[in-house]
Design brief:
Layout lengths: L3 H11 L3 H21 L3 H10 L4 H4 L8 H9 L4 H9 L11 H22 L10 H9 L9 H5 L8 H13 L2 H4 L2
Helix pairs in contact: 2-3, 2-7, 2-10, 3-6, 5-6, 6-7, 7-10, 8-10
C-alpha cells in the first residue's frame, strides 16, 4: 500500500481546489478518530477519508461517475479493496450496499465535515475552536442552513452505534485538532 505522504501527493496532484483538499483532510482526521473510537484500523480509515474525493475535480458535473473513477484510480495505486469499495459506496447515486463499518463511517462523515465547516464560518471568529457540539446540533436542525450537508446521511451515524451528539462531538474535536491546516 502507498504511504500517507504518497497518498497526499496524489491528492494534491488530482485535486487542485484548496477547499476540496481541506475537505479531504477533514474527512481523513474524522475517520481516524472514529476508527480509534470503534477499535478499527486507523490507517485504513484515514486513507479512505483522505482519498474519497480523489476524482471530484474530474466528475463534479457527472455525479454518476463520481467515486467510480476514484475507485479506478485507487486500483492503479494498489490501495486495498475494502478502501476502494468504501470510496465507491460513499456516493449514494450508485445505491451500493454499505457492508461494514468503514463503508458506513465514510458515508456519514463526508457531509458532516461540510456541516462543521459551515458552522465555523458563521461564528463571529470564523474558527472551529469557537464552536461546540450543541452549536453544531442546533444548526443541524435548521434545514435551510448548509443545505449541501445531507442530514439523513449524517444521521446514519446510528449505523455505527453512535448517537448524533457523539458523532458530531468526535467529528468536531477531530477537525479542531487540525484547525490551522484547515485554515479555520
Amino acid at each position: 500500500m502507498i504511504t500517507r505522504q504518497e497518498a497526499f501527493s496524489v491528492l494534491k496532484k488530482e485535486v487542485s481546489n484548496a477547499n476540496l483538499q481541506k475537505h479531504c483532510l477533514a474527512t481523513e482526521v474524522v475517520m481516524k478518530s472514529l476508527a480509534t473510537k470503534l477499535g478499527e484500523d486507523e490507517e485504513k480509515w484515514s486513507f479512505a477519508g483522505l482519498l474519497h474525493d480523489l476524482d471530484y475535480s474530474k466528475t463534479a458535473d457527472e455525479p454518476e461517475r463520481h467515486s467510480l473513477l476514484a475507485a479506478e484510480m485507487l486500483e492503479k495505486l494498489d490501495v486495498p479493496k475494502d478502501i476502494i469499495y468504501a470510496v465507491k459506496v460513499h456516493n449514494e447515486v450508485h445505491d451500493l450496499p454499505r457492508k461494514n463499518l468503514l463503508d458506513k463511517a465514510l458515508y456519514a462523515v463526508d457531509p458532516l465535515t461540510g456541516l462543521i465547516v459551515a458552522c465555523a464560518l458563521v461564528s463571529p471568529e470564523k474558527k472551529l475552536k469557537s464552536i461546540d457540539t450543541p452549536f453544531v446540533l442546533n444548526r443541524f436542525k435548521e434545514k435551510s442552513f448548509a443545505r449541501g450537508a445531507n442530514r439523513e446521511q449524517i444521521a446514519t451515524c446510528e449505523d455505527l452505534g453512535l448517537s448524533l451528539e457523539e458523532f458530531v462531538q468526535i467529528g468536531l474535536e477531530a477537525m479542531q485538532s487540525i484547525d490551522e491546516e484547515l485554515g479555520l
